[in-house]
């Protein structure tokens, strides 16, 4: 194994292992010490801080209001997050200020909706079904073209990809060969 002369390996968000020594020294002679950054860690929790709350299998940010934090979950947008808060009669406060009881209520309410993996799987299966029955939308999905009636002469670069000049060059070579 190759040993680096100076390396920092994160053990936790607040701890790092630093290896010092020249590149020829063996790993036994290297000195290890732990470095802790006290400027970013509050001391009231013993140096550990919860940075995110886990709701619906997703870590939502701690420093934003609940309405905007919920929008980090795939399948929950602005209107659904507002609906969840109104159903729970919960005040839109910063996520880190939520109590344990409020978090449990929030998790239960979010679990009622189809989110993340289930939603992605549902959409993928719906598109596969369209491809199987060979309907217009399924064929457009297979060809990588828009399926909701947009024009394709000038736009839809997102689906078609970058411009390709291959067809034009091949056509020119065939024309030169025929002459």
From TrEMBL:
One of its GO terms (molecular function) is structural constituent of ribosome. Keywords: Ribonucleoprotein, Ribosomal protein, Signal. The keyword Ribonucleoprotein applies. GO terms for biological process: translation. PANTHER family: 30S RIBOSOMAL PROTEIN S13/40S RIBOSOMAL PROTEIN S18, SMALL RIBOSOMAL SUBUNIT PROTEIN US13M. It comes from Apostasia shenzhenica. Residues 1-21 form the signal peptide. Belongs to the universal ribosomal protein uS13 family. SUPFAM superfamilies: S13-like H2TH domain. GO terms for cellular component: mitochondrion; small ribosomal subunit. Gene3D superfamilies: 1.10.8.50, 30s ribosomal protein s13, domain 2 (4.10.910.10). It comes from the Eukaryota. The keyword Signal applies. It holds the Pfam family Ribosomal_S13. This is 30S ribosomal protein S13, chloroplastic.
């Amino acid at each position: 194994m190759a040993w680096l002369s100076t390396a920092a390996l994160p053990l936790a968000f607040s701890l790092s292992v630093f290896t010092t020594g020249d590149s020829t020294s063996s790993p036994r002679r290297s000195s290890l010490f732990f470095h802790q950054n006290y400027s970013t860690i509050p001391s009231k929790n013993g140096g550990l801080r919860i940075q995110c709350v886990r709701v619906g299998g997703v870590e939502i940010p701690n420093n934003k209001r609940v309405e905007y934090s919920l929008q980090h979950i795939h399948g929950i947008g602005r209107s659904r997050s507002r609906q969840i808060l109104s159903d729970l009669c919960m005040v839109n406060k910063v996520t880190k200020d939520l109590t344990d009881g409020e978090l449990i209520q929030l998790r239960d309410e979010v679990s009622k909706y189809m989110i993340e993996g289930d939603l992605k799987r549902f959409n993928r299966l719906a598109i596969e079904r369209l491809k199987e029955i060979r309907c217009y939308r399924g064929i457009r999905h297979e060809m990588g073209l828009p399926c909701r009636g947009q024009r394709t002469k000038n736009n839809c670069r997102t689906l078609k990809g970058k411009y390709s000049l291959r067809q034009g060059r091949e056509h020119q070579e065939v024309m030169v060969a025929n002459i």
